[in-house]
Amino acid sequence: MAIDWVEARETAWRAGFESRPAHGHASFGEAIGSALAAPLRSASDLPAFPTSAVDGWAVAGPGPWTIDGEILAGSVPGPIDAGQAVKIATGAQVPAGCEGIIRLENAHVDGTAVSGETAREWREAGEEARAGEELLAEGTPITAPVVGLAAAAGYSSLDAYRRPLTSLVIFGDELLTSGVSREGRVRDSLGPMVPHLLDAAGGMATGTIGPVADTLDDHVEALRSALDSADVVCTTGGTMVGPVDHLHAALKAVDASYVLNTVSVRPGFPMLLARTPNGRFIAGLPGNPQSAVIAVVTIVAPLLAGLRGLPLPPLRETVLAEDVPGRGESTHLALVDPTGRRIAHHGSAMLRGLASAAGFALIAPGTAAKAGQRVPLVPVPGVSA
Ligand SMILES: Nc1nc2c(c(=O)[nH]1)N[C@H]1C(S)=C(S)[C@@H](COP(=O)(O)OP(=O)(O)OC[C@H]3O[C@@H](n4cnc5c(N)ncnc54)[C@H](O)[C@@H]3O)O[C@H]1N2
Ligand code: MOO
Questions:
Q1: Is there an atom of ligand 2 within 6 Å of 267 CB?
Q2: What is this structure's pTM?
Q3: Any ligand 2 atom below 6 A from CB of 268
């Protein structure tokens, strides 16, 4: 029974969130794009020592001061005495006894003496954080700046939900992997496209199997092999009931049970999500290329977010520049450009419209939308910046 589109997203996200894998130490590269599984606490004071903010002269006592020494970044200075001036570099540790720093450009050097206006031109130890202080809460998305902060705070790995491993299985005897479509055969457009969408949605693509021959045995073998190494296997094609649509029988053969089977959305209706007894997921993307992308945005992106401990990806908004019809009792996902105009060549077998789209405008079941109306925009991973 087809479920509502909004419910499908939430169901896929919840299935991922509830079975997100045990967390543990992940390298920065593995952790980026997932969420912190524990609060990030600073492993030292930040800065760990008083640090000069400028290139200048560190001085003690009243001036003028006698030049005596130099402190470069990366060294540990000895204390300085009243009347002494030590040349100091930005980032260098401020010596004990230092009462002020004269910026180089404000200093007057006369032989062995220096004078000028002093200021507290340094960062105190612990000014940014104290050792043990919480910097970021559990559940925070791990972005490039988060990784940078973790390194600054003394870490080389993070307690995180790692990015799920994904694999793609392409079904279809009619598919060509090179050259032009001809003689009843078409170029595989999903093999070159879907792994990048999965990466952009937070997975880590491990490989593609196929095109797989249209026999049940070949389908089952390909599915088993993909399940060996991936947390989430996406398949393309074979979701319907055509003479060589073997996906449902193959799911049965690997003892997978449906999380959802068909969604009340146009295009993309025949998508499905299933789970194996050992907790791996299989997302069945319809064969029509645009419908496959709709399945990615509807079920796979939310699933990958849940598996990484992240919330359901938010929708955006767009203001429609023209009327957009509904699709009866189904949700209509309509391709629109960045100005809210519908895009030509939006048939589910086509990619021409999608290739220049800002995303899918969401027209709710039983409604049609008017020009000027604000509607949700479903982003395409890696596309809708
Ligand atoms: N009797 C019915 N037939 C169909 C219905 C229906 O409701 N009743 N729904 C249509 C819809 S909607 C879709 S979507 C497709 C889904 O079909 P499958 O998931 O079973 O996919 P296939 O039959 O294998 O292929 C459909 C179409 O897509 C082309 N394709 C498949 N894989 C690729 C690829 N990797 N790259 C490029 N093109 C691909 C394939 O050649 C077919 O043209 O079912 C409709 N039928
Ligand atoms: O839903 Mo199909 O996915 O319209 O092409």
A1: yes
A2: 0.85
A3: yes
